Amino acid sequence: MKTLKKYIVNRKAEDPRFANGYDKGYENFKIGIMLKVAREEAGLTQEQLATKLNTKKTAISRIENHAEDIKLSTIKKFAQALGETIRIEFVQPKSVK
Q1: What DSSP character marks residue 55?
Q2: Is 11 helix (H, G, I), strand (E, B) or coil?
Q3: d(Cα 8, Cα 90) in Å, to the nearest integer?
Q4: Which residues neighbour 64 within 8 Å (Cβ) at sequence distance 6 or greater?
Q5: Which pLDDT belongs to residue 73?
Q6: pTM to 2 decimals?
Q7: Which residue has the higher pLDDT, 30 or 48?
Q8: How far apart are CA 33 and CA 36, in angstroms?
Q9: Cα angle at 87 between 84 and 90, to 5 degrees?
Q10: Which CATH class is domain 3-81?
């Protein structure tokens, strides 16, 4: 096991607050990265996407870098501006090994 992964597993086992905060923080980070990658794959800058959404570049940056508590309607508008749709699915959580 890599050092960082080992640290995270051990820290989660020892500190429930860290475990809860880590998982939530990671999910928020992952959503922001997914939105950024989708924008980049569509060939748009933050400024261009902001124009399509009738907002400011700083709003797009905030969405991509701080996706906590982002509304589903915002993600839907983001996707539509990129010519995409969203899919929501429920999956079983992975076990920590």
Answers
A1: S
A2: helix
A3: 25
A4: 32, 33, 35, 36, 39, 46
A5: 93
A6: 0.70
A7: 48
A8: 5
A9: 165
A10: mainly alpha
Expressed in angstroms, the distance from the first to the final Cα of the chain is 10
Q: Measure the CA–CA gap between 52 and 95, rounded to whole angstroms.
A: 40
| pLDDT digits 0-9 by tens, 19-38 | 887 877 777 788 888 899 99
Sketch the domain layout of the chain as residue ranges. 3-81
DSSP H helical segments within 15-83, as ranges? Answer: 16-41, 46-52, 57-65, 72-81
CA-to-CA separations, 19 to 13, 26, 73, 87, 93, in angstroms, rounded: 8, 11, 29, 27, 14
> Residues 54, 63, 69, 74: is their CA dihedral positive or negative?
positive
pLDDT reading at 68 higher than 70: yes
Tokens coding 97: 């090994």
